[in-house]
Description:
Blueprint: H1 8-21, H2 28-39, H3 46-51, H4 58-70, E1 74-78, E2 84-88, E3 97-101, E4 107-110, H5 114-129, E5 140-143, H6 146-153
Parallel strand pairs: 3-5
Antiparallel strand pairs: 1-2, 3-4
Amino acid sequence: MSDPRGDAHRLxxxxxxxxxxxxxxxxxxxxxxxxxxxxxxxxLTIHEILERGSELAMSxxxxxxxxxxxxxxxxxxxxxxxxxxxxxxxxxxEHHHHVVCSSCGSVRDLVPDVDAERLLQVAMGRATELGFAxxxxxxxxxxxxxxxxxxxxx
Length: 154
């Protein structure tokens, strides 16, 4: 799908269709969550989402994010710190991977390069040979972010 990130109306239309498929609708609160995620440059924790202007209680935000995740609108990235971080699903944004700090749990997007994508396609082909039916792939690189690495070396 082309990138509807720059077109909020088109994003709303696509999201509404996905939500209808699971018996849900695009409510003003869900639209607010989507706008926060659409404008983010990396996956956000629930606390970061609420800090950015969502007028939801934390429990309501979790419920709505769960519905959006079930509908295939939002992806949840789980890190070693136990917090989920949320972002728009890839088919609503763009294909990317993540670098994940194993100390503080920060997650940043990593744009894949052609060579990495070729290797992952080979791996998906091997999975097919085993009888698995892959639909997509994701790659999370674990390590230390610059801040945590600097603290560890100090």
